[in-house]
Amino acid sequence: MINQLGDASLWASFGLPGLVIFALFIILLGVVIFAIKRFDRIDERNIKHANDMADRHKEERNEWRVTTYSHLDKLDSTMTRLADGIRDSRE
What we know:
By secondary structure, this protein is mostly helical. It has three helices and no strands.
């Protein structure tokens, strides 16, 4: 069926309007193919961008984790000193 629609002689049998319709079909097909290729490229860029963001966020989470552990160590040290100070003041 598609092969028959793509045959210009079929449309030529209808005269000039048939050839115009055939040309419009070809233009429409070209626009659709162009749009699909363009959206595929945009989609590939978006996927790459999303992966880059995920990698950066992973690194950032690692930095947060290190910072959090550092803060927890400082807090633990402070709490130990405070508890020792309270214990020493009771004696």
